[in-house]
């Protein structure tokens, strides 16, 4: 990204992992955003080691050595993912119209910043598009001849969005009971298995059983008939799979540490805004583990054959 000057603010979400935070910060420092908004969760009560780790993590922000306006929003106590991320983003978008967003374990390729910035400006006033992702979970498949495709799924490990999208977002998903009770998901998904999967997810989120905010963004996309942009190559890798993570605790998880590839410029823009149904079907299976009865049967038979003497 030599010679490219980033104009877009970056929102950096941090907590208690100075090691991964430092690696992500180094990539942010290379991009030299003109404005850096840092959102930090606080330590959990009765865990003295977290106080120290949170302090070490926040100290990394003091290493900013380029011309940059720094705004901080640090929680004194632990709010958890569901509350800290939305409240932090709400605060950030009170100051800015659009932003690139990175968590402390999302390591970007440098071309991610230009990719996100160009599309933020291109689709700034296109209300069909609600977010831009840096992740591609297509397993190396050649999904599109363009630089990106449109999806109904949201990937949050490095992304970008606008204030207009945040105004639609509510982590408490108050629309869910109406959507559930009127069977609206059946109008969206092609299979009953998908409907059942997402009904369970959204019901658990609504009941406060999952400490998350990202599933709520998926529901917003579905409820608003909105789209998310997915790059043709993976631009951000999640390096945070460890026992210290909140959700990504398995080091052999299929989405851990996926290598990044640089985006090629100039971008090749689709001449249409149509959801890539085939790519979404692959995402449904690979990322969320939703498979048809036929695919589950084939998989079971394959495992049985592999066990033959």
Whole-angstrom Rg: 20 Å
DSSP strand count: 10
- Average pLDDT rating: 91
Strand order of the largest sheet: 3-2-1-4-8-6-9-7
- Strand and helix order: EHEHEHEEHEEEHHHHEEHH
Structural class: alpha/beta
Strand content: 15-25%
Number of discrete helical segments: 10
State the low-pLDDT regions, or none: 245-252, 292-309
Can you tell me the number of structural domains? 1
Helix share, percent: 25-40%
How would you name the oligomeric state of the polypeptide chains in this document?
Answer: single chain
What characterizes the major β-sheet?
A: 8 strands, mixed
Shape: globular
What CATH first level would be assigned? Alpha Beta
Helix and strand topology:
Blueprint: E1 10-14, H1 18-31, E2 35-40, H2 48-59, E3 69-74, H3 81-92, E4 98-103, E5 106-108, H4 111-122, E6 129-133, E7 148-151, E8 159-162, H5 163-166, H6 176-181, H7 192-206, H8 214-223, E9 227-231, E10 236-238, H9 277-286, H10 293-306
Parallel strand pairs: 1-2, 1-4, 2-3, 6-9
Antiparallel strand pairs: 4-8, 5-10, 6-8, 7-9
Helix pairs in contact: 1-2
């Amino acid at each position: 990204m030599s010679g490219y000057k980033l104009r877009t603010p970056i929102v950096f979400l941090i907590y208690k992992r100075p090691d991964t935070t430092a690696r992500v910060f180094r990539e942010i420092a290379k991009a030299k955003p003109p404005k850096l908004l840092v959102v930090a969760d606080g330590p959990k009560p009765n865990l003295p080691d977290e106080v120290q780790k949170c302090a070490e993590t926040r100290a990394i922000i003091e290493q900013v050595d380029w011309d940059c306006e720094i705004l901080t929003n640090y929680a004194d106590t632990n709010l958890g993912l569901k509350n800290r991320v939305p409240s932090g983003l709400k605060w950030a978008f009170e100051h800015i119209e659009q932003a690139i967003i990175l968590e402390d374990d999302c390591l970007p390729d440098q071309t991610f910043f230009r990719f996100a910035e160009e599309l933020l400006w291109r689709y700034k006033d296109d209300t069909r598009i609600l977010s831009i992702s840096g992740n591609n979970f297509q397993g190396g498949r050649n999904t599109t001849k363009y630089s990106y495709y449109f999806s109904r799924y949201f990937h949050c490990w490095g992304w970008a969005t606008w204030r207009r999208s945040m105004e639609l977002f509510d982590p408490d998903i108050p629309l869910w009971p109406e959507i559930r009770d009127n069977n609206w998901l059946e109008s969206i998904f092609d299979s009953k298995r998908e409907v059942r999967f997402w009904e369970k997810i959204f019901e658990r989120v609504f009941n406060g059983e999952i400490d998350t905010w990202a599933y709520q963004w998926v529901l917003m996309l579905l409820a608003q008939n909105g789209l998310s942009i997915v790059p043709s190559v993976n631009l951000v890798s999640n390096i945070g799979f460890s026992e210290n993570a909140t959700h990504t605790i398995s080091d052999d998880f299929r989405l851990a540490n996926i290598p990044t590839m640089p985006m090629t410029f100039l971008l090749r823009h689709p001449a249409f805004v149509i959801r890539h149904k085939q790519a979404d079907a692959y995402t449904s299976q690979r990322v969320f583990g939703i498979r048809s009865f036929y695919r589950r049967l084939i998989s079971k038979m394959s495992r049985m054959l592999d066990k033959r003497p």
